[in-house]
Write a structure and sequence with these properties.
The complex is a heterodimer.
Chain A (H helix, E strand, L loop, with lengths): L3 E10 L5 H10 L4 E3 L1 H6 L5 E3 L12 H5 L3 H16 L4 H6 L3 E5 L4 H14 L9 H5 L3 H9 L6 E4 L5 H14 L5 E8 L3 H8 L11 H4 L15 E9 H6 L6 E10 L9 H15 L8 E3 L6 H15 L5 E3 L2 H4 L6 H14 L2 E2 L22 E2 L4 E8 L3 E8 L2
Parallel strand pairs in A: 4-5, 4-6, 9-10, 9-13
Antiparallel strand pairs in A: 1-7, 1-8, 2-3, 6-7, 8-14, 11-12, 13-14
Chain B lengths: L2 H14 L22 H15 L14 H12 L2
Helix pairs in contact in B: 1-2, 1-3
The chains are: A alpha/beta, B mainly alpha.
Chain lengths: 405, 81
């Protein structure tokens, strides 16, 4: 069976605009969360959000290549530039070789809303500009990146809510393992503007710990009161192992297991059965036991019910081996469509640098999280194999197992 | 607006917003072959022209406009009729 390795990574997030910055933030337990006052004016219940500025691509990218990109495409472009450099893939390599792209994204709200506002005012679609349609579609990220990087392999976007980024890596892994592609650019992107999160805020799902923004995202803590939305993009380059060795690529880690499930229950409430099934399937795929896992990067978003259900599933699987567990969402907030991919970047950084980043703000365990071995501070420890969870609205669950090579 | 003002305004947005190479701007420059303006760029130019000159470009009227000089003339004919 063909092996699938990671040969490049890139990140653009509220805790760092590149791998080095992110590594330092993870180690320091630094939060990227703040307040965007315009959200309150717009009608939000909670103005808390990851803070991330839009990159300036004028002068970097041709106008034609920039025009069709909404902000999540720009984030994904930056992350992918870093990942391709990491993977030692230059323009010549892109011209001469078939590389695919399977990237996670599940909205482009701002682009749609801005187009609507122009039409309302002008009553004329020819005044929208050429970029509007390409920015507005869910597949905006893959359609733009495949044009910019001249990709000629598989090309589509994965929309699976907060499991999008994770499923994209799972799918890339399957394409390569089954011999359909030798290299696939995977990842997740998430717009980070007030238009995109308004309906979500309307569920009263966000934390209102407005007086202490960096303490608001507190996965597994007994006093958690909701998630904090965030965004950016993360790219993971997957490659067939022999292919990577042959071209002298830097082999970062290996993807050894992908598990999935669908809850088939409530549209927004997670189920511990579904979590458990996805994790177990990933272990089966990897031919591993729970005791093989050194660290679990939990999905835990700081919601009262979600974290509880995941804690129950984690305890069911890992009560004997008690691996270290943390949710990096404590620092980044919930990066939604980006999260599954960014958490692979964060966890791989930890694995390569032998530390586990803290689940910050975990001050008081509750009945379920008390049973888990949650990292409250940075732990210097050799990690050889980790498992990462991502669960999304609609009950879509994904789990990935990555190991050191 | 005088023809020179039309030329200056047009050249300014072609360079700043459409990012056409300054050196390729000349009366006889062909819009597609010399300035590299494609069909999607024309969509954006229509938006800018409405904003700068206050009229809507009609695609059928642009069929005979091949060069930059002809484009200046077209704008001139629409705003100074």
């Amino acid at each position: 069976m063909r092996r699938v390795v990671i040969t490049g990574m890139g990140i653009y997030s509220c805790i760092g605009k590149n791998l080095n910055e992110v590594k330092e933030s993870l180690y320091a337990g630094r939060s990227g969360i703040g307040i965007e006052a315009i959200r309150t004016e717009y009608g939000y219940r909670s103005p808390l959000t990851g803070i991330l500025e839009r990159p300036v691509l004028k002068g970097v990218l041709d106008r034609r290549l920039r025009t069709g990109m909404a902000e999540e495409g720009e984030f994904a472009y930056i992350a992918t530039v870093e990942a391709l450099a990491n993977a030692k893939v230059d323009n010549l390599y892109l011209e001469d070789n078939e590389i695919g792209i399977i990237y996670g994204n599940d909205s482009s709200a701002k682009a749609v809303i801005e187009a609507h506002e122009i039409i309302k005012e002008k009553k004329d679609t020819t005044l929208l500009g050429s970029g509007a349609i390409f920015q507005s579609m869910n597949s905006t990220v893959t359609m733009n990146l495949s044009t910019i990087f001249r990709l000629r392999g598989i090309n589509f976007t994965v929309s699976a809510a907060c499991a999008s980024g994770s499923h994209s890596i799972g799918l890339g892994y399957m394409y390569i393992r089954n011999g359909l592609q030798d290299m696939v650019i995977c990842g997740g992107a998430q717009e980070i503007n007030a238009y995109s999160m308004a309906s979500f805020d309307g569920l009263s799902a966000f934390s209102v710990r407005i007086d202490e923004p960096t303490k608001a995202s507190r996965p597994f803590d007994a006093h958690r009161d909701g998630l904090v939305p965030s965004g950016g993009a993360a790219t993971i380059i997957l490659e067939e192992y022999e292919h990577a060795v042959q071209r002298g690529a830097n082999i970062i880690a290996e993807v050894v297991g992908y598990g999935f499930s669908s809850n088939g229950t409530h549209i927004s409430q997670p189920s511990n059965d579904g979590c458990l099934k996805a994790m177990q399937r990933a272990l089966d795929d990897a031919g591993m036991k729970p005791s093989d896992i050194d660290y679990v990067n939990a999905h835990a978003t700081s919601t009262p019910i979600g974290d509880t259900n995941e804690a129950i599933a984690l305890d069911a699987l890992f009560s004997a081996s008690r691996p270290l567990i943390s949710s990096t969402k404590s620092m980044t907030g919930h990066e939604c469509w980006m999260a599954g991919a960014s958490e692979i970047v964060y966890s791989t950084i930890m694995m390569l640098n032998s530390f586990v980043a803290p689940n910050i703000n975990f001050e008081t365990p509750d009945e379920h999280s008390a049973k888990l071995n949650i990292a409250t501070h940075t732990v210097n420890k050799e990690i050889n194999i980790y498992l990462s969870n991502s669960f999304g609205f609609g009950g879509t669950n994904s789990a990935l197992i990555i190991k050191k090579v | 607006m005088t023809r020179q003002e039309i030329i200056d305004t047009t050249n300014e947005f072609l360079i700043d917003e459409i990012e056409v190479e300054k050196d390729s701007i000349a009366e006889d420059s062909r819009l597609k072959d010399d300035l590299g303006i494609d069909s999607l760029d024309f969509v954006d130019i229509a938006v800018i022209v409405e904003r700068k000159f206050g009229f809507k470009i009609k695609a059928e009227e642009m069929m005979s406009v091949q060069t930059l000089g002809e484009f200046y003339n077209y704008i001139d004919s629409k705003i100074n009729q």
